[in-house]
């Protein structure tokens, strides 16, 4: 339940942001917004790739999940808070930081959910995570549109702050279950048990 709640919030926010990126204040051109989105996605793939390798090599699933979540919350606040006029270079840099920090949450959550839900089928546990996230993204997109349509001043600060507070607040809420999460590695324990039994039989 903790993983489902947090994953739903993280991916729901990310999907909503993808839909709202062109509506963020700052008066950026479509080309600039496109570059920002590309930077976020590319850095996200890189971050997820690095996180996947670390997860596989260390098996420290819980620790990596918590570190990724903390980094994601900080990066989210920095990115949404930088969505103002005449701030394009930092806007792009913060998008890269957000992608690199947030997307690793996905493989880390999936690995932890598979471990703690074992022997339930992986497709079922992972599918439930994505159904929850995609459903919540609809509501988050609608709320974001409402908040970003509020009157703005010339800098964009007054428009971004309601969305900044809302989205960053939900990310902090998502961090709380992760901080309290202490799920077991049921699949890993079973794999190790099977490995030792097979080795023992071979030695005999």
Could you characterize what this model shows?
The chain has 8 helices and no strands. The model has no long low-confidence stretch (mean pLDDT 82). The longest helix has 29 residues, at 30-58. With 204 residues, it is mainly alpha-helical.
What is this structure, in a nutshell?
With 204 residues, the protein is an all-alpha fold.
Strand content: under 5%
Amino-to-carboxy terminus distance: 43 Å
| Major β-sheet profile | none
Cα shape: elongated
- Count of helices? 8
Which residue ranges are poorly predicted, with pLDDT under 50 across at least 5 consecutive positions?
none
| Rg from Cα | 19 Å
Q: What are the key terms here?
A:
204 residues; mainly alpha; 8 helices; 81% helix; elongated
What secondary-structure arrangement, pairings included, does this model have?
Blueprint: H1 2-20, H2 30-58, H3 61-81, H4 88-102, H5 105-117, H6 122-148, H7 157-180, H8 186-203
Helix pairs in contact: 1-5, 1-6, 1-7, 2-4, 2-5, 3-4, 3-5, 3-7, 5-6, 6-7
């Amino acid at each position: 339940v903790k993983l489902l709640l947090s994953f739903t919030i993280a991916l729901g926010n990310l999907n909503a942001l993808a839909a709202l990126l062109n509506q963020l204040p700052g008066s950026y051109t479509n080309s600039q917004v496109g570059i920002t989105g590309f930077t976020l996605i590319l850095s996200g793939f890189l971050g997820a790739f690095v996180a996947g390798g670390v997860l596989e090599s260390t098996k420290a699933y819980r620790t990596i999940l918590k570190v990724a979540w903390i980094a994601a919350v900080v990066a989210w606040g920095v990115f949404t808070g930088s969505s103002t006029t005449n701030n394009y270079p930092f806007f792009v840099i913060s998008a890269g930081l957000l992608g690199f920090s947030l997307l690793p949450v996905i493989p880390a959550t999936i690995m932890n959910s598979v471990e703690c839900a074992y022997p339930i089928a992986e497709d079922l546990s992972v599918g439930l995570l994505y159904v929850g996230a995609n459903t919540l993204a609809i509501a988050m997109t609608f709320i974001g549109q409402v908040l970003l349509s509020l009157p703005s001043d010339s800098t964009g600060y007054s428009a971004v702050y309601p969305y900044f507070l809302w989205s960053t607040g939900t990310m902090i809420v998502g961090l709380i279950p992760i901080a309290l999460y202490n799920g077991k590695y049921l699949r890993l324990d079973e794999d190790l048990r099977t490995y030792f039994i097979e080795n023992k039989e071979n030695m005999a």
